């Protein structure tokens, strides 16, 4: 009976065990499958939808299966609790054939092991799932951030692209609306600057997704690349639009250089000749002219400086006024070099057309406007500077000047140390080895002398022939075939006659704000502003620049007395030194000063009618240590000329007979006839009326025939120089006579009470702005005499 019951229980347990065994096997297979699926899901999806799908699907499957696994494990636990654990094993310790009860016991052990394995695998799967879930949540958060950044950037780019799509073709825009369109595009370019940061943010977020953890999907990668491409295309489109509008604003259609039309006001209009050279129309007078109206006013105002008796100072003061009008006193040398480099102006012998000049000047003045917004009017400054450069280097209005000429003009009037200008200009004509030959130096000096030539002052600086200056420089260098920068600087420090106007310009600029605690002994101005002239003959005798330049003297003081010039306030050491010089000069006679003339510049040997205008032998150059005595030379000459000029005093003008008036007219006609004859002879020989850079001949010819040709060419150049100098002298003399005749007519026609003259001839403004030195008629017999007697004294102070 007991055996039957055991058998029945055993059969029932076996059936239940089979069901549980199959259930656990299925669960183990499912757990292994999910473990494999979990491993296969790595790496995490590269876009937001994929990650969200991975996250939701796996979590849902685990949640669905959890009750099944828990129920199966609970059933197994209950089943195992009802089974004996070790009873049969203890009854039969030795191996033998198993009975049904024993086999049931072994099945129970197997079922327990399966249940433990299911529980272990389930816990492991939950652990791996939790870790995977953490990675998915982190990836989900990062992908959401990337997606939001991309969506925001996409929206901004779409708005910008809509604005870009509204642009009309530049060719369809009205000329008058170009500036408005340009401003709108510039404003919008500033508004989309923050987009650059957003693009950078998107790129940074995308770079954080790196294999093997997370790899962006091809879709996300293409979206990021597309956003970057659209941003670059937008930037290029805006820059190109601005460039096109700029070009159209300056060059578009028949009204090219349109942005410069605002440089003139009614009734004036800016027009363009076929070769792009601007000219100006006055609709009131129905006339045209090459000069800008403001430039004409400036030239007329320069005539006020014609009463300055010394040409170097007169020229420098005119250039200083011109420099300020062109705002070049605000331009640093580095800024000028940057603009030249930006426009790739490196080939100095290449020509520049009008548009190239305007573009480079616009770059220069745009930068100056940013630094000095209240002082710089870009269209006006560009037009005025262009006008001046053409007046200096393109008087025939061909529409082209050389790059070297452009650099020389701009750098000469910019704000920089004097020696820095010398170094830069020398570098432009030096070869790649840093040396310069005669021909290259001639090009530089030729372009430089055109600046005072345009003001009508070239005769005072040796004329337009620069060959004597070149010869002087190379003689200073012991006749070397080439010179280096150091020798050139040493020569320029001596202030050669053809270039002396440039250092004087710097001293004039330095003296503008100088305040000297001294009183002028003539006009009683105190303190003295500008140049101060201290006598080295009398104690405590000072003259201001106005009195000195006009030739006024106080009682007891002679113009041949030595004086010293200061462009900055004096120091105690200078005061002591001048005091010692005054003591020395107290014991010196007039004969000593006559035997020791002083000159404030390096004269050059120039041929005029076979004679020397100025030679170093007759006018030795002083060392820089003796600069305080240089004024003696021209002071004595000036007194003589002043005495001669006094013959045209107020009383003398009243007593001029009509016979003298007729003799002046006859002299004027004779001079005009001689001038015409020389001019015809000059033109007949085929000589160019305008100066040009000379071509220096080789030192050693290869054959006697070459030597003859070289000698003949040299004679022709000398003859040309003599003719030009003679013609210049006749022109100057003729202008002075015309000025005298004009004044005499006024005196003869006006009532006696109104005929007030101060002893010097009044000069009327002219195109060349040439000073009329009628109070010094003897100074115009030769150019050299005029130069030495009107150049004035130059100190060694430099503009810093």
UniProtKB/TrEMBL annotation:
<dbReference type="InterPro" id="IPR015154">
    <property type="entry name" value="EF-hand_dom_typ2"/>
</dbReference>
<dbReference type="GO" id="GO:0099536">
    <property type="term" value="P:synaptic signaling"/>
</dbReference>
<keyword id="KW-0770">Synapse</keyword>
<dbReference type="InterPro" id="IPR011992">
    <property type="entry name" value="EF-hand-dom_pair"/>
</dbReference>
<keyword id="KW-1003">Cell membrane</keyword>
<feature type="domain" description="ZZ-type">
    <location>
        <begin position="515"/>
        <end position="571"/>
    </location>
</feature>
<dbReference type="GO" id="GO:0090257">
    <property type="term" value="P:regulation of muscle system process"/>
</dbReference>
<dbReference type="InterPro" id="IPR002017">
    <property type="entry name" value="Spectrin_repeat"/>
</dbReference>
<dbReference type="InterPro" id="IPR018159">
    <property type="entry name" value="Spectrin/alpha-actinin"/>
</dbReference>
<dbReference type="Pfam" id="PF00435">
    <property type="entry name" value="Spectrin"/>
</dbReference>
<keyword id="KW-0479">Metal-binding</keyword>
<keyword id="KW-0628">Postsynaptic cell membrane</keyword>
<dbReference type="InterPro" id="IPR000433">
    <property type="entry name" value="Znf_ZZ"/>
</dbReference>
<keyword id="KW-0472">Membrane</keyword>
<dbReference type="Pfam" id="PF00569">
    <property type="entry name" value="ZZ"/>
</dbReference>
<dbReference type="InterPro" id="IPR015153">
    <property type="entry name" value="EF-hand_dom_typ1"/>
</dbReference>
<feature type="region of interest" description="Disordered">
    <location>
        <begin position="751"/>
        <end position="777"/>
    </location>
</feature>
<feature type="compositionally biased region" description="Polar residues">
    <location>
        <begin position="758"/>
        <end position="777"/>
    </location>
</feature>
<dbReference type="Pfam" id="PF09068">
    <property type="entry name" value="EF-hand_2"/>
</dbReference>
<feature type="coiled-coil region">
    <location>
        <begin position="129"/>
        <end position="163"/>
    </location>
</feature>
<dbReference type="InterPro" id="IPR036020">
    <property type="entry name" value="WW_dom_sf"/>
</dbReference>
<dbReference type="InterPro" id="IPR043145">
    <property type="entry name" value="Znf_ZZ_sf"/>
</dbReference>
<keyword id="KW-0862">Zinc</keyword>
<feature type="region of interest" description="Disordered">
    <location>
        <begin position="680"/>
        <end position="705"/>
    </location>
</feature>
<dbReference type="InterPro" id="IPR050774">
    <property type="entry name" value="KCMF1/Dystrophin"/>
</dbReference>
<dbReference type="Pfam" id="PF09069">
    <property type="entry name" value="EF-hand_3"/>
</dbReference>
<keyword id="KW-0175">Coiled coil</keyword>
<keyword id="KW-0677">Repeat</keyword>
<protein>
    <recommendedName>
        <fullName>Dystrophin</fullName>
    </recommendedName>
</protein>
<dbReference type="GO" id="GO:0098794">
    <property type="term" value="C:postsynapse"/>
</dbReference>
<dbReference type="GO" id="GO:0005737">
    <property type="term" value="C:cytoplasm"/>
</dbReference>
<dbReference type="GO" id="GO:0008270">
    <property type="term" value="F:zinc ion binding"/>
</dbReference>
<dbReference type="GO" id="GO:0007519">
    <property type="term" value="P:skeletal muscle tissue development"/>
</dbReference>
<dbReference type="Pfam" id="PF00397">
    <property type="entry name" value="WW"/>
</dbReference>
<keyword id="KW-0863">Zinc-finger</keyword>
<dbReference type="GO" id="GO:0055001">
    <property type="term" value="P:muscle cell development"/>
</dbReference>
<dbReference type="GO" id="GO:0042383">
    <property type="term" value="C:sarcolemma"/>
</dbReference>
<keyword id="KW-0597">Phosphoprotein</keyword>
<dbReference type="GO" id="GO:0048666">
    <property type="term" value="P:neuron development"/>
</dbReference>
<feature type="domain" description="WW">
    <location>
        <begin position="262"/>
        <end position="295"/>
    </location>
</feature>
<dbReference type="InterPro" id="IPR001202">
    <property type="entry name" value="WW_dom"/>
</dbReference>
């Amino acid at each position: 009976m007991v055996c039957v019951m055991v058998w029945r229980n055993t059969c029932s347990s076996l059936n239940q065990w089979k069901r549980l065994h199959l259930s656990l096997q299925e669960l183990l297979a499912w757990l292994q499958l999910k473990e494999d699926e979990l491993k296969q899901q790595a790496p995490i999806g590269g876009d937001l939808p994929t990650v969200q799908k991975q996250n939701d699907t796996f979590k849902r499957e685990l949640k669905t299966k959890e009750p099944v696994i828990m129920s199966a494990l609970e059933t197994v636990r209950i089943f195992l609790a009802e089974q004996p654990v070790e009873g049969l094993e203890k009854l039969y310790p030795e191996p033998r054939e198993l009975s049904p009860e024993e086999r049931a016991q072994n099945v129970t052990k197997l079922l327990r092991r399966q249940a433990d394995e299911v529980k272990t695998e389930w816990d492991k799967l939950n652990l791996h799932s939790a870790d995977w879930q953490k990675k998915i949540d982190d990836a989900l958060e990062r992908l959401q951030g990337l997606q939001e950044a991309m969506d925001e950037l996409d929206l901004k780019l779409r708005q910008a692209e809509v604005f870009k799509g509204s642009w009309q073709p530049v060719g369809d825009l009205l000329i008058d609306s170009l500036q408005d369109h340009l401003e709108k595009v510039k404003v919008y370019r500033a508004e989309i600057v923050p987009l650059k940061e957003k693009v950078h943010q998107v790129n940074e977020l995308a770079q954080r997704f790196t294999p093997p953890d997370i790899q962006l999907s091809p879709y996300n990668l293409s979206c990021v690349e597309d956003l970057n491409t659209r941003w670059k295309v937008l930037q290029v489109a805006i820059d190109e639009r601005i460039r096109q509008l700029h070009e159209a604003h300056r060059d578009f259609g028949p009204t090219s250089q349109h942005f410069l039309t605002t440089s003139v006001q009614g009734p004036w209009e800016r027009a363009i000749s076929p070769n792009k050279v601007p000219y100006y129309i006055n609709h009131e007078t129905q006339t045209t002219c090459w000069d800008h109206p403001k430039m004409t006013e400036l030239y007329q105002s320069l005539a006020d400086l014609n009463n300055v008796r010394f040409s170097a100072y007169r020229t420098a003061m005119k250039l200083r006024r011109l420099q300020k009008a062109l705002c070049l006193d605000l331009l640093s040398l580095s800024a000028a070099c940057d603009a030249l480099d930006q426009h790739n102006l490196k080939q100095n012998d290449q020509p520049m057309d009008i548009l190239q000049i305007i573009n480079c000047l616009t770059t220069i003045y745009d930068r100056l406007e940013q630094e000095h917004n209240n002082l710089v009017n870009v269209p006006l400054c560009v037009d005025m500077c262009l006008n001046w450069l053409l007046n200096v280097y393109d008087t025939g209005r061909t529409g082209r000047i050389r790059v070297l000429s452009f650099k020389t003009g701009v750098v000469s009037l910019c704000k920089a140390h004097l020696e820095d200008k010398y170094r830069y200009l020398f570098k432009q004509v030096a070869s790649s080895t840093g040396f310069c030959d005669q021909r290259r130096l001639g090009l530089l000096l030729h372009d430089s002398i055109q600046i005072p030539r345009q003001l009508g002052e070239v005769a005072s600086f040796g004329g337009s022939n620069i060959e004597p200056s070149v010869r002087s420089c190379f003689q200073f260098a012991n006749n070397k075939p080439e010179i280096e920068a150091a020798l050139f600087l040493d020569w320029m420090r001596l202030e050669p006659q053809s270039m002396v106007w440039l250092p004087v310009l710097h001293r004039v600029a330095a003296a503008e704000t100088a305040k000297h605690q001294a009183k002028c002994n003539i006009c009683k101005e105190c303190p003295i502003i500008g140049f101060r002239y201290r006598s080295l003959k009398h104690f405590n005798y000072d003259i201001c620049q106005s009195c000195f330049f006009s030739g006024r003297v106080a009682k007891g003081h002679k113009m041949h007395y030595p004086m010293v010039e200061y462009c900055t306030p004096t120091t105690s050491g200078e005061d002591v030194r001048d005091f010692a010089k005054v003591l020395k000069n107290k014991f010196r006679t007039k004969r000593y000063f006559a035997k020791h003339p002083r000159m404030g510049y390096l004269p050059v040997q120039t041929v005029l009618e076979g004679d020397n205008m100025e030679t170093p032998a007759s006018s030795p150059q002083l060392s820089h240590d003796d600069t305080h005595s240089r004024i003696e030379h021209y002071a004595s000459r000036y007194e003589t000329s002043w005495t001669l000029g006094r013959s045209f005093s107020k009383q003398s003008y009243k007593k001029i007979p009509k016979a003298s008036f007729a003799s002046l007219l006859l002299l004027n006609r004779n001079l005009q006839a001689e001038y015409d004859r020389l001019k015809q002879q000059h033109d007949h020989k085929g000589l160019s009326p305008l100066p040009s850079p000379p071509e220096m001949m080789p030192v050693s010819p290869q054959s006697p025939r070459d030597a003859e040709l070289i000698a003949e060419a040299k004679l022709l150049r000398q003859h040309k120089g003599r003719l030009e100098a003679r013609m210049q002298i006749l022109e100057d003399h003729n202008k002075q006579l015309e000025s005298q005749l004009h004044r005499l007519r006024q005196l003869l026609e006006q009532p006696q009470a109104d005929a007030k003259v101060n002893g010097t001839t009044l000069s009327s403004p002219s195109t060349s702005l040439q000073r009329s030195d009628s109070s010094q008629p003897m100074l115009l017999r030769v150019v050299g005499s005029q130069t030495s007697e009107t150049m004035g004294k130059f100190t060694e102070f430099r503009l810093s």
